[in-house]
Amino acid sequence: MFPYMVNFKVSARTLTGALNAHNKAAVDWGWQGLIAYGCHSLVVVIDSSTAQTLQVLEKHKADVVKVKWARENYHHNIGSPYSLRLASADVNGKIIIWDVAAGVAQCEIQEHAKPIQDVQWLWNQDASRDLLLAIHPPNYIVLWNADTGTKLWKKSYADNILSFSFDPFDPSHLTLLTSEGIVFISDFSPSKPPSGPGKKVYISSPHSSPAHSKLAAATGAKKALNKVKILITQEKPSAEFITLNDCLQLAYLPSKRNHMLLLYPREILILDLEVNQTVGVIAIERTGVPFLQVIPCFQRDGLFCLHENGCITLRVRRSYSSIFNTSNEEPDPDPVQELTYDLRSQCDAIRVTKTVRPFSMVCCPVNENAAALVVSDGRVMIWELKSAVCNRNSRNSSSGVSPLYSPVSFCGIPVGVLQNKLPDLSLDNMIGQSAIAGEEHPKGSILQEVHLKFLLTGLLSGLPSPQFAIRMCPPLTTKNIKMYQPLLAVGTGNGSVLVYHLTSGLLHKELSIHSCEVRGIEWTSLTGFLSFATSTPNNMGLVRNELQLVDLPTGRSIAFRGERGNDESPIEMIKVSYLKQYLAVVFKDKPLELWDVRTCTILREMSKNFPAITALEWSPSHNLKSLRKKQLATREAMARQTVVSDTELSVVESSVISLLQEAESKSELSQNISAREHFVFTDTDGQVYHLTVEGNSVKDSARIPPDGSMGSITCIAWKGDTLVLGDMDGNLNFWDLKGRVSRGIPTHRSWVRKIRFAPGKGNQKLIAMYNDGAEVWDTKEVQMVSSLRSGRNVTFRILDVDWCTSDKVILASDDGCIRVLEMSMKSTCFRMDEQELTGMQFDYPENEEIKTLLQEQLNSLSNDIKKLLLDPEFTLLQRCLLVSRLYGDESELHFWTVAAHYLHSLSQEKAVRTPAAEEAAPREDRANNPLDICYDILCENSYFQKFQLERVNLQEVKRSTYDHTRKCTDQLLLLGQTDRAVQLLLETSADNQHYYCDSLKACLVTTVTSSGPSQSTIKLVATNMIANGKLAEGVQLLCLIDKAADACRYLQTYGEWNRAAWLAKVRLNSEECADVLKRWVDHLCSPQVNQKSKALLVLLSLGCFSSVAETLHSMRYFDRAALFVEACIKYGAIEVSEDTDILCWVVRAEQGAGLQKLISVIYADYARSLKNLGFKQGAILFASKARAAGRDLLKELESPRQEVTEE
Description:
- InterPro entries: Beta-prop_WDR11_1st, Beta-prop_WDR11_2nd, TPR_WDR11, WD40/YVTN_repeat-like_dom_sf, WD40_repeat_CS, WD40_repeat_dom_sf, WD40_rpt, WDR11.
- Keywords: Cell projection, Cytoplasm, Cytoplasmic vesicle, Cytoskeleton, Golgi apparatus, Nucleus, Phosphoprotein, Repeat, WD repeat.
- Residues 21-319 form the WDR11 first beta-propeller domain.
- Helices cover 26% and strands 30% of the residues.
- By secondary structure, it is of the alpha+beta class.
- Among the domains are: 464-568, no CATH class; 934-1102, Serine Threonine Protein Phosphatase 5, Tetratricopeptide repeat, CATH 1.25.40; 1104-1138 and 1148-1206, no CATH class.
- The protein contains 25 helices and 62 strands.
């Protein structure tokens, strides 16, 4: 027989409740799937998949205003493991860096004593992952080393800074939202502070724009939006314009370069920063609910929007099948050229009241298919996006919204309709790319239209607002160990009782029992309790008393006192006897009532002259032996009445036996078989009474005169031979009943509100609660063990106390939290791996058995993912991509996304290179399934060019001033669109100071020929311009004469690397473009820049797979390098020659022994790392693939196996 195992381990933890107004923006969703948010001065960490609280961090002395997870964009291995690092900032200006798994503060940072406005981890450097940028009010930005707490630099600005946003495509670009306008910083660097004051621009409020004119009809609305004129100016707007004060948020769009959004309560403005112009407006109708927050997506051009009613909406940019009208049809006289975002899905709103309102929203950064809403009452609601394939006929064509289609690819590779896939894995696996200018969806391909909907998949409820009355269930004993559960009952101000399971910290049951505030709870068994509530007094001082007996398994509650309770004196306390037989009900101005708990009958109502009770306690000593004798006698009498032969007894079923036992217990009750129990109470004079109860008889045993040193007694606790009394003046009186001695201790802490002994035989610890805190005493030694004082140790005030286990106490406090603490009553942080959690996966620490942990993680995966991983058609590239998503590994995710795309493209080209008839197929496939535009420079050149043309067309339509027109002209000339550029140049009015220059420029553009003399003259002028600081003008002239390659070289020489890459993509052929980008790669790999991760992605986009493998190996990314080589072999980027066993790279003609050696070394190093992790089978496999380089390792790995076989 297996021993029965029961889990009753209770860790220190905190149950949190409603939030503070300061916590509004303190929420973040990390790459490892954990959500952190501020709750008063605490930081709560929950798991997004199970909605369980994993950690509560307590060290801040003030309300938390910001939390931010560190990014996961680095290569993980045993030396650089996954780490749960979190920065939290409070209203007193303190920033704490946490190791969340261990629950310890690694570093504390303090600059000023004002609330931190914003914090952000720097993510672009490969070298350091410890840099944290913070806004310290009113106008400082400070860069900190979050590992050591040292300040690297500090910079002040003219205006008060509200928030900031980094350009996701260029980490040297930082934008500050200030009280006056926006400051653009273009030279941000970790090594030194920005040089100048930045470029400051002002924004006129959109309320002065036509976007707020009455939107009567759809066409009118479109025209109104289209006519929004300039909003960004470098001059300060006049007084009648409301400036940026009502701008709620500023953020870059991660889905496309140089776009930013500004959020206002009633609209979202999309700005193109190249022309500083609004290119899209999302306006809410007059009856619509205003915006609170918006989160732009990376994978698709979409926006998660939070509204004031708690509704989350998803808006996705509309596709235009053809923006340019190239046909002979009559053009639209007023084409609406807008970035239009259509509403695609919305979740249910919450019921908003004065105290309940939405605070903030966060989005899953890995998959962008879920959003979490944090509500002011402490709720966290997790909404997941789900996609459903819909019938095309069912679509409402009159809605004007273009359909969404499911993507062709899954995990980076195009898949068939019948292949296994998880459509809801991430946003880019749910909906395909938006069609860009001039692109039509392929007619031959099978496109499935999808609809999106939000589904509530997780809900974490906080505690209601205080007051609280708490009571722990009866303690664990050897007799109840098989059915014991550590349950805590919490009575609330709204009349409900919440029962929490303290092993997991989860809400076990919520019972709406009372109609008014719960004042006290007493357990009658492990599965039942009594709770009482009193209504507010009337003019006579009378109330309605509610006393309910609750059966926890069924949730059934009965009025314990029947019809009694209306218009009577309020109940002060209830006390259940030690053997759970009797209940004493003490009233304020009414005599004591004694009840039988088992039968719910009143045993005795004391006479009117009975003394008024100030404190009462039942004795732990009782006559249990006499009770056992009486029970035995009753059962023998029953047995004589019911004679059953042995043979008959053997066939009596267990259910019948249980019925007999129930009948026995009922007969015992009917015969009033009960043990004698005692209780003591004190009256207003301090006299102690000792009474005995047996059945319905109550006898007055003894009276002890009052102690002169004590004031009015407020509470009594009794355990073993120790009786402790507490009074109004803060005195504790310890009575040793055996030794007949008493000892008074003045604590000087005012009114003793409650005293309670700890459970456990021989455990004489006691907790005392005062107005200003609590103390733990050892009554054996009569000395204090620990103390907690409001305002000194802690900021909260204690509302109620109890013991959780023999060494842990429970404190309910006025900050809406309930804390389970060690006896020392210190911090509540704990190690996450000590928690009893369901369905969790943690990443490996160095000292654990990794195989076991990996097995646990595999077991925690959903069946759909397991099925996918077991599918033989699911390729290595797809596996790598899926695993990077599951682990929230940002670095791996981007690498394998780009690698999968370009390796698949290569294999498609190879597959149809020979048959001429199928030559068009791969190009079409590649054109219709390009790399997402969020990867910008890494996209295919043709797709990138089309996107840039669409963008400049939109800029052209939106231009409203001469400056905008000039910027559009410059872009068109760089893109080679000379005819349209000339048209714009000729639009310059005669009274403009640039009229003459623009006219001459138009003439130059139209007359440029490829003749030698004109080219050389223009080239000479261009180089002179560049030499004299006119870089942009010189580059433009070089592009006019098709010398874009030279222009790129000049741009790179002058440090304009991003601009050079952009120009190469839009103007050069693939070979010249590759040369420019390779020079960029060398620059990125240089020690002063140290962005090798970005360089790897550029090399992948160029198809330089050999260089990728070599760079990965040089960076000691052995696992990624080996898997990449494997993928290259599978996709034909490397061919294996059977004759010579030499591997050769196909794409670049780099063949021979050097390459063979590199691959062997990669395999050997990967085998060693697998061996160190304990994966012997994998190590043997890769050591054998490494051939000569892995021979010694293979012998070492196989030698133990041989020894075993010899034995």
